[in-house]
Specification:
The chain has one domain: HUPs (Rossmann fold, 3-Layer(aba) Sandwich). Strand 3 (74-83), helix 4 and strand 4 (115-122) form a beta-alpha-beta unit. The radius of gyration is 16 Å and the shape is globular. It is of the alpha/beta class. The chain has a six-stranded mixed β-sheet with strand order 1-4-3-2-5-6, sandwiched between helices. Helix 3 packs across helix 4. Helices cover 34% and strands 23% of the residues.
């Protein structure tokens, strides 16, 4: 963990020597910002929970379930991955950052929970989650019941394959 709150592996990828070109993977993640990302801390008894932003309704449902554990000293981090199309530079996304931050803070206000928000700009959604989440993170996702596999179920499966602990809530 570094003083900026980013894990050492994320900060190391963003360091670029003068005259050195960035690799394709580094260009995908070149511009992102996460507030106070920390892994679960067993010494202090803090449980860090990540909630990916999917839709306002489903994200609100996941926040409500995470809020049920307030007795457990749960710290919630709401993460929004913004996919930036290839012609646009990552440091100039199409969606205004203030709008995205306001949308995430509004969700926290509706549940009366405290937490941190993070917005990641990436070329690929899964790559953005890979960079935004610390290894073996606890992730809470809500989804609707359908006979077909939903987008949230596909995301949950991908995150599980990446080594995260996923709690999938079916409404």
């Amino acid at each position: 963990m570094t003083s900026s709150g980013l894990p050492a592996y994320a900060e190391d990828e963003m360091v670029k020597e003068p005259g050195e070109t960035m690799s394709n993977n580094q260009q995908q993640i070149a511009y992102h910002e996460i507030d106070q990302r920390r892994p679960a801390d067993t010494a202090t008894g803090v449980l860090w929970v990540a909630i990916p932003y999917t839709t306002p309704e489903l994200t609100l449902e996941a926040l409500r379930h995470a809020g049920a554990g307030t007795d457990l000293n749960v710290q919630i981090s709401l993460v929004d991955i913004q996919v930036v199309p290839f012609p646009c530079p990552l440091d100039q996304p199409l969606i205004d950052r203030k709008f995205s931050e306001g949308r995430l803070r509004n969700l926290f206000a509706q549940t009366n929970l405290a937490g941190t928000t993070g917005i990641v700009y990436a070329r690929d959604r899964l790559e953005g989650y890979r960079q935004a989440l610390a290894p073996a993170s606890l992730v809470i996702l809500a989804t609707r019941k359908h006979w077909w596999r939903t987008r949230e179920q596909k995301l949950a499966r991908s995150l599980q394959k990446a080594g995260h602990h996923v709690m999938l809530l079916r409404n």
